[in-house]
Design goal:
single chain; 106 residues; alpha+beta; YaeB-like fold; five-stranded mixed β-sheet; 39% helix
Length: 106
């Protein structure tokens, strides 16, 4: 738990310097509630992605999506997948999907 707290404290500083997670879609909110996931931890992952895009060296698996999901990025965290839309000019992010590996792309 101490590691998670330090990650969150570190990412609070990253939110100020790298950008802001605007909001979660209804689907993402339902997934957070259904799977008992911590919203702050998911926000920390997205903020870490913003930091990685800004040039920080962070071990995070991010892939630009194609096809139906063009314009979004996939963040892989274990078996969880976050599909996030980034507005780099405004330094903002929109979390569209948070789900397990097989269900996220449906």
């Amino acid at each position: 738990m101490a590691g998670l707290q330090s990650l969150l404290v570190k990412n609070i500083g990253l939110i100020c310097s790298y950008g802001l997670v605007d909001f979660f879609s209804d689907r993402a909110e339902k997934s957070l509630e259904k799977n008992h996931l911590d919203r702050d931890e998911m926000t920390a992952v997205v903020v870490s992605a913003l930091a990685k895009f800004s040039g920080e060296v962070i071990s995070l698996d991010i892939k630009k999506m194609k096809g139906v999901w063009a314009g979004f990025h996939r963040i892989r965290k274990g078996n969880l997948r976050l599909i996030v839309g980034f507005n780099f000019e405004a330094r903002r992010a929109f979390v569209d999907v948070i789900d397990w590996r097989g269900k996220a792309y449906r």
